[in-house]
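Q: Structure tokens for this one, please.
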Amino acid sequence: YGYSILTMAADSLHHHFVLPGQVLATSMSESEGGFLRGHGTYIELVPDDSTDHNDDDMMGDTKQQGGMAGASKKKRSGWGTETKSTVMQMDDGNEAERQDENDEPKDLQRGPQRLIASVAGTVERVNKLISVIPLSPSIYTGQVGDLIVGRIVGVGGSRWKVNLTCSPPTASASNGSMKEGQLPLSGVNLPGGVQRIRTSEDVLAMRNLFREGDLLTCEVQQVQKDGNLILHTRSLRYGKLDNGVLVTVPPSLVGRRKNHFVTLKGLTSQNNDEMDTEEEGEGDVDVYLGLNGGIWIQRTIPSEWENAIRADQDERAPLAETLQKLRHRHATTRVSPSMRESIARVRNSVECLRLVHCQITPDSIEIVARASVDQGIRVADMLLPEMVIKLTEGTRR
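A: Here is the predicted structure, written as tokens:
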């Protein structure tokens, strides 16, 4: 019976916006709860005199507010009333430290329970697990597998400190608003793709790979219990970033996708005849969508570069060595004026989407960029207020 009420309530709230203190689910089971507590929620015991009315109030409020969860009409414990029902009871601080953070207090394992949101956000449900995803534009909470565009802010102790907020290198590393990740030496590829145990010589040569102020792409390998992120760049797609533009946006505007490395083709203005014939693929732009809010924009590396490098080296040369030479040529080759205009156009397209708080996806970026090309709008005029509204009209339909 309890789980059926949970299913109806949770299904009606799935992907709906809730506020702190609103009831998400109620379990009528005396032996065990019919739900699992996720992030952004807490468990509260239901007073015996309000058990029979709680679910009707919750479902009634949900219907009245168009699917949004509403707080029960009965007063809950902890809201100015004296009752024996509490969220958590501990005898002393030492006992709380010894208790595992994943174990529920014994008082919460007896009697009817209800799950309440502790933050403002949207409800996510996976079977019995109910969580509230906070809607915060400034705080990034990483997950394993996330693509990160960060900046090196410290080197030492066989690891690099990576600033996840992509602040400029002049920002103080002690700033409380700065969120950092750890990139261990064992999580990077050695020059030439050599596979071996890291030695003290590698520790001394760490700044030859990354030094303070360098931008890089990496992936979240592990999320520790205290929220710290362990990163890695062992994939050949990740590494140092050069010859491009970094744009910082609120992390909530960048959604999780199957592929965060995208290429936008043919964004060169029709009246621009200054393209260099030496660089094939001129006008194509690569965009790296970091889930921490960092977006990197650079030119697409021409396929002719890779063919020339492969022709000059041994056929048995590892792929890592070829990519390393490609990145070196990309970093040392001048970006043509037409390519700079294409990169700047994509950069301003991202800024337009940020200003109107639209989701930043490859499709939305391309819509804004192509609209500016088709309408003959100069790159310098794209961020004018009237142009921002006009260019983002296609993304707000």
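A few notes: The chain has a mean pLDDT of 76. Residues 337-355 form the longest helix (19 residues).
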